Amino acid sequence: MPTYLANYWRVPAHMATDVVEGQWLTEPGTLVALSSVGIAFLLDESIRDYWQDNIRSDATEDVSNLLFEAARFDVAIPALLAGYGLATVTGEHYHADSLALVAQSAVISQVGTNAVKRLAGRHRPETSPEDSSRWGAGEKAFFSGHASGAWAVATVMSYRYSETPFAAPVSYGLATAVSLARIDSDDHWTSDTIAGALFGYWVGKTVAEHSPFPQRNAYVLPMMDGDSTGIRLHIAF
């Protein structure tokens, strides 16, 4: 537990070190990630106009509102704490450890996001629909906190349950849905959500890589071979 608590400052320190030393530049996909944000900046207004005119509907608005409420920090953290308590009481320590890491990634991602929001001060599309380059003190569009939190959580979950079929697709699928919901509700530009997703992924990856908890090395997987089905035990050494 002391190491886990210390990671609340060690993880940001590791991330800062990566930036200063330029290690992030050697990561696979870095160029693609940065390019995607840059392209999104150039297309923000066009994407916003097309989405609001051709995609947004009462149905998408209902889904966006649902995802917004579910991903709120003051809703997600109590839910995680309740899940952690239940897992601990029932002896499911691996799940409890995983939820602790999820909470850690959520907290760190939101602290970092709010710091950037205050420094950047970008106007939201609903207040500046014709000018995505409008920046000013007090505005908090860049980058999306919902996107960063969702992707931080998804990354930890996909790492901790990498042996579980569909864990990664479901986790990242939900994170993508949360990100798109912020575009649909006209609260964020596309570049806000992409940048938030990348930051969240970075936080989640760093949290998972520096986890003080053991990774599960034995698990059961479904098996399908022609007409027969069953399960198999996988043990990693």
Automatic annotation (TrEMBL):
Q: Where is the Phosphatidic acid phosphatase type 2/haloperoxidase domain?
A: 100-208
- State the Gene3D superfamilies in the record: Phosphatidic acid phosphatase type 2/haloperoxidase
Pfam families documented for this protein = PAP2
Q: Which InterPro entries match?
A: PAP2/HPO, PAP2/HPO_sf
Name the record gives this protein: Phosphatidic acid phosphatase type 2/haloperoxidase domain-containing protein
Which organism is the protein's source? Alkalilimnicola ehrlichii
